[in-house]
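Lecture notes, unit on protein representations.

Consider one protein chain, 275 amino acids long.
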Amino acid sequence: MTLTSPPHMKWFVNSGNNISTPDGNNIEIWVLDYALDDVILSSWAKHFRTHYCLDEEIDFLREGYGYSRADYLNKIKFPDISISPGPSIRSGDFSEILVSDYLEYILGYWVPRTRYGSKVVRNESSKGCDTLAFKIVNPKKDTPEDTLAIFEAKAQFSISQKKANPRLQDAINDSIKDEIRRAESLNAIKQHLFDKKSFEESKRINRFQNPVDRPFKEISGAAALFSSHLFDSDLISQSSVEHHPNHKNLKLIVIHGENMMALVHELYRRAADEA
């Protein structure tokens, strides 16, 4: 890990058992080997909560409703625990945030966390690219090694399902669309940072908005996340990158862990109850 990592990242373990696609692309297999540790789970829940709402903002935002902090988060900010499509939005948001943690704390990217706080409808996915991450080698001048990474994440956590779906292939296919969504997604991050008065961070996005005049390296990424009972290495190995326009710079990862949906719900519960 290249940066100071939150404690839950110690549960994020590279299995070392990589898989190859028919096209010869490498797929990293990671395991989320978490434990029922109250201290670490509470820290993780706080980290998770700040993606939706900073702690110093909650009291101001809840005031008009007359809600408690927990009620405000559960009724206004967080996807619903049971009403469809709330649970699937929860698993999707969790997966995107975990991939953001992977990019920031393991690969050393700068990852603006702007995607969830500006949601208008809590039971809908945010539009645009799932996760954008940045590396600027020298802030004073452009270099060819400045990098934009755009990752798509797909999850399958349901305890009731017994057969894996081709979620890595789904993520690869969705990643193809990022070339079209990139400009709008960059603008959304820049505007959100500007609105938060994070002016220096907002200006960093300029580096990646004009690839013709200011070329940079672009990494595409596809991530699939599973509960371990749905992890199917044979199905994963059939994933194809043949039609991906950036297949030479495409990173593939799979993350699995036991009872992932239970973990997701526990993080949302703690995030609300411990606010």
